[in-house]
Design brief:
This protein has no helices and 11 strands. The protein has strands at residues 5-7, 10-13, 18-23, 34-39, 45-51, 58-60, 68-73, 78-83, 92-99, 113-116, 120-125. The strands form 2 sheets. Strands 2, 4, 5, 6, 9, 10 and 11 form a 7-stranded mixed β-sheet that branches. A 4-stranded antiparallel β-sheet has the order 1-3-8-7, with no helix packed on it.
Length: 126
């Protein structure tokens, strides 16, 4: 059983940065695409960012482009999400997830992912 563990969430103010990290104790990410989703109360779980095993393919939802950066360290089995210029609308629980394939057909679709972390809360105050 693959376990994904997120860390780095917290309460910040508008405009502040925050860095989330995801690790898989005892397992490698190879060769799966890894991603971050988020879910606000009463809303669907939405794609935020994804990165392929090689890092050659990186995806962002439009609302975070230019503010968020996803990266991975395959040796350390970590996937990070650097979030800058945070806004109140970024408030959500953020989930790390592993795609079923190295290159999923639709990386923006939650159905392409099989293992999920428990999430870490990010709250941005105005």
């Amino acid at each position: 059983q693959v376990q994904l563990v997120e860390s780095g969430g917290g309460l910040v103010q508008t405009g502040d940065p925050l860095r989330l990290s995801c690790t898989t104790p005892g397992h490698s990410f190879a060769p799966h695409l890894m991603a971050w989703f988020r879910q606000a109360p009463g809303k669907a779980r939405d794609f935020v960012a994804g990165i392929s095993w090689t890092g050659n393919y990186i995806y962002y939802t439009d609302t975070v482009k230019g503010r968020f950066t996803i990266s991975r360290d395959n040796a350390k089995t970590t996937v990070d999400l650097q979030m800058n210029s945070l806004r109140p609308e970024d408030t959500a629980t953020y989930y790390c997830t592993r795609a079923r394939k190295s290159v999923p057909g639709d990386p923006y679709n939650a159905l392409e992912y099989d293992y999920w972390g428990r999430g870490t809360q990010v709250t941005v105050s105005s």
